[in-house]
Specification:
The complex is a heterodimer of chains A (295) and B (458).
Chain A (H helix, E strand, L loop, with lengths): L1 H52 L3 H6 L12 H8 L3 H32 L5 H10 L5 H14 L6 H9 L3 H12 L3 H9 L4 H12 L1 H17 L2 H6 L8 H6 L9 H36 L1
Chain B lengths: L3 H29 L14 E7 L2 H17 L3 E7 L2 H14 L5 E4 L1 H9 L7 H6 L9 H6 L1 E2 L2 E2 L5 E2 L2 E6 H6 L17 H9 L1 E2 L15 E7 L8 H6 L19 H16 L6 H4 L6 H8 L3 E7 L3 H7 L4 E4 L9 E4 L3 E4 L6 H11 L2 H9 L4 E2 L5 H10 L5 H8 L1 E4 L6 H17 L4 H18 L1
Parallel strand pairs in B: 1-2, 1-3, 9-10, 12-15
Antiparallel strand pairs in B: 3-13, 4-5, 6-14, 7-10, 7-11, 8-9
Helix pairs in contact in B: 2-15, 4-18, 15-16, 18-19
The chains are: A mainly alpha (295), B alpha/beta (458).
């Protein structure tokens, strides 16, 4: 009897265990299925763009965007590089983005250090006042900035494209300042006692131990500079100063929209970003957690 | 063991910091260099003119023309500024406000009168007289379109009319030829309507004349016409004797006339009701022709009514041979909307003399021949039209119907200050009529009110 009575719950337990394992398996399958669908939703536009970049216009307009190009053609790329000077647009974009990034990171570092670890009257009020400009959308300052550049005779130069962003931006300063606040004061004080100047403290002590945040700020600045469209569109008149985003937008005429060239151009603009992501994947993921914590 | 590590690390740290500084210094030096876009344009004895346009395809042709111009004028350099069309008007105006506007720039007719009124364009009449330019070489309608009173604001460069692009393979399959002189009446009858019914087929292959035709399963519509005052309803309104404006520079529209109503009713009631025209919900309620172009490329549309500027796009977007037919003949004859572009000469340019040289060149037979023979534009100089025709014949497309219309009866694109914005409102207001959710008379009444308000306040 005993064995029977004990056997029954044991069998039930086994069945329940199996059922729960099955239930767990089904849940996991469902979960991954859902993730797969979400991933597809995010990936499909890129797949369509990549396919489109290798198709002639007739195939883009007459076929499903999900149909792979058959045969793939490089004609679109040839056109944008031979007829439309995309090589120059690429060089322009790289030049202004590198300058913008280098300047923004360097000056944000200095500003952030001053706000975080230097003592001067009104420091915090000044910081919050500076931070408030973060709340002002770019579009609001667009017209005054344009007028400023017009009066400075800097329109239609490379200067105009990067100058508004090269001297640091509030978000970058904020990001670094919060990071610097986590560095123990004692480290700087010890350096000062040893006769280190503030500049030396910044470059020799703070910068080396703040690599993660510097890389984060660099990536943010680079991606912003690379994708910037409205400002370069407004401040440049000459095609020789076009950046990639403006060059791509130029294919949108009222006479015709050359989707094949737009998609090829978009792929050219996308590739460096993908390479950047591949190289700095760890840092980018890290930067998301860093910015998340510090915000 | 722990000794050497800090040393190496310190070295590495120093390296990292100094690398940043070196990059910064190099870039600063680089950015300090004069030239290569770091300094403003214009130096020495060479004058640099900026020439603004919005079409990347025509830019190639214009660059060829400008290369010739620069050879003839070694002291003038021309920098082309291609502005995306969607931002063109705003950017040009912004550049005028800040004093950095292009010396010469394409002017589309919807903005023409406003640009003249705002003093952006130079009156070229004295210059034309002084340079003895023969204005009779151009289409007279184009000269009239770009004049106000005795003042002429640009040398005509090109023109466009509206016709029907058709899918030759589809008509061959149906054993149909597109007749040249189809006609329509305001009551929805005529050879044009019968032909369209014959050319519309359902998924079972029955055409719209057949009793077995299933309008719920149409495979190919005979025609696609946009809610568009130029490439769409504007031509049908003109063919009933109606017009958007009673005359150029009018301050009120003339949309509530019976003629305008007849023209639009023919499309929204008769052609849509007969299921031969792509309905508004498929073509899109506004003038964006992308949907119809895509349907045409996919074979869901046998004939697409549009302007000749679409030929480059049509040729590269289809996989079948394309034919072109003239517009059908309406109650008031065959009438196409006629339009063309000029180069506006900036009234505040620093280099009026050089800009006038470029204006003259771009309106000259030599430049128009370069662009015409390259298939970029129909030259505004009448005698050069065969060049454009020949280019497209070699490409397998006969453009003659567009020329036939230009040489026949045409109406100019509506022209008055604010007409661009007014027409945007009109198209939006006519949307419900094309979708079949509002009577044409009501939609036109709303459109008239909105257009009048814009024109009064422009």
């Amino acid at each position: 009897m005993t064995s029977v009575t004990t056997a029954v719950p044991a069998a039930t337990a086994v069945t329940t265990g199996r059922a729960s394992r099955l239930g767990k398996g089904a849940r996991i399958t469902l979960f991954y299925l859902l993730l797969l669908i979400i991933a597809l939703i995010f990936i499909l536009p890129y797949v369509m763009s990549i396919f489109g970049a290798f198709k002639p216009l007739s195939a883009i307009l007459s076929q499903s965007p999900l149909r792979p190009p058959s045969p793939p053609t490089l004609a679109n790329f040839k056109t944008i590089f031979t007829q439309y000077d995309f090589g120059r647009y690429l060089a322009n974009t790289l030049l202004v983005t590198v300058i913008l990034t280098a300047g923004q990171v360097t000056f944000s570092l200095m500003g952030a250090y001053a706000f975080a670890r230097m003592e001067f009257p009104g420091r915090d009020s000044l910081f919050w006042l500076y931070l408030m400009t973060l709340m002002v959308p770019n579009i609001v300052t667009l017209v005054p900035l344009y007028v400023l550049f017009a009066h400075s005779h800097l329109l239609n130069t490379y200067w105009a494209i990067f100058l508004p962003y090269v001297l640091g931006v509030p978000f970058s300063v904020f990001l670094m300042r919060q990071y610097f606040m986590t560095i123990p004061k004692e480290v700087m004080e010890a350096a000062r006692l040893d006769g280190c100047s503030e500049g030396r403290i910044l470059w020799r002590i703070v910068v080396p131990i703040s690599r993660p945040i510097i890389i984060t700020a660099t990536l943010l600045a680079f991606v912003f500079g690379w994708n910037n469209f409205m400002w370069p569109l407004i401040v440049t008149n000459s095609n020789s100063l076009n950046v990639l985003t403006v060059g791509i937008a130029n294919f949108n005429s009222n006479f015709s929209v050359q989707w094949n060239l737009i998609l090829a151009g978009a792929l050219v603009a996308l590739i460096p970003m993908v390479i950047l992501f591949a190289i700095f994947q760890k840092h980018i993921v890290n930067s998301i957690s860093l910015t998340g914590i510090n915000r | 063991m722990s000794g050497p590590r800090p040393g190496r690390s310190a070295l590495r740290r120093a390296g990292f910091a100094s690398r940043i500084m070196i990059i910064g210094a190099v870039l600063t030096l680089l950015s300090g260099c004069a030239g290569w876009g770091f300094s403003g344009s214009g130096n020495g004895s060479t004058v640099t003119l900026t020439y603004a346009l919005w079409d990347p395809h025509e830019q190639i042709g214009y660059q060829q023309s400008i290369n010739e111009f620069e050879k003839l004028h070694p002291d003038i350099k021309v920098d082309i500024e291609n502005i995306p069309y969607g931002n063109y008007e705003q950017k040009t105006i912004a550049e005028f406000i800040t004093g950095g506007a292009p010396d010469l720039f394409w002017v589309n007719t919807p903005w023409l009168a406003t640009f003249i009124k705002d003093g952006m364009l130079t009156n070229l009449t004295p210059l034309i007289k002084a340079s003895h330019i023969d204005m009779s070489q151009y289409y007279p309608q184009l000269v009239a379109l770009h004049s106000r009173g005795s003042a002429i604001y640009g040398l005509p460069k090109d023109w466009d009319t509206i016709a029907l692009y058709y899918n030759k393979a589809y008509f061959n399959k149906l054993h149909l030829t597109v007749p040249a002189n189809l006609s329509w009446s305001a009551n929805g009858t005529g050879s044009f309507v019968t032909f369209l019914k014959e050319a519309t087929t359902d998924t079972s292959g029955h055409n719209a004349l057949s009793p077995q035709f299933n309008p719920g399963k149409i495979a190919t519509y005979a025609i696609g016409i946009n809610n568009d005052p130029q490439g769409g309803w504007g031509d049908y309104v003109a063919e009933t004797g109606g017009s958007v404006l009673p005359h150029p520079y009018a301050t009120t529209a003339s949309l509530t006339t019976p003629q305008v109503n007849e023209g639009i009713t023919f499309l929204t009631k008769y052609l849509t009701g007969d299921h031969v025209m792509v309905p508004g919900d498929l073509s899109g309620p506004n003038a964006n022709g992308n949907n119809l172009e895509q349907m045409f490329a996919q074979g869901q549309l046998a004939m697409w009514e549009e302007g000749d500027w679409n030929t480059v796009s049509v040729k590269s977007s289809v996989t079948f041979p394309v034919g072109i037919a003239t517009l059908p003949i309406g109650p008031d004859g065959r009438v196409s909307v006629f339009n063309g572009l000029i180069d506006g000469l900036n009234s505040h340019t620093k280099y009026p003399k050089q800009a006038w040289e470029l204006e003259q060149w771009l309106g000259s037979p030599r430049s128009e021949a370069i662009l015409g023979s390259g298939g970029y534009i129909w030259p505004a100089i009448k005698s050069l039209d065969p060049l454009f025709l020949q280019y497209w014949q070699k490409q397998g497309i006969d453009m003659q119907p567009f020329l036939t219309e230009a040489q026949g009866k045409v109406v100019n694109f509506p022209n008055t200050p604010g007409v661009g914005d007014a027409l945007t409102d009109v198209v939006n207001d006519l949307g419900p009529a094309f979708l079949g959710t509002e009577p044409v008379s009501q939609a036109l009444k709303t459109a008239q009110n909105d257009a009048d308000y814009v024109l009064r306040t422009s």
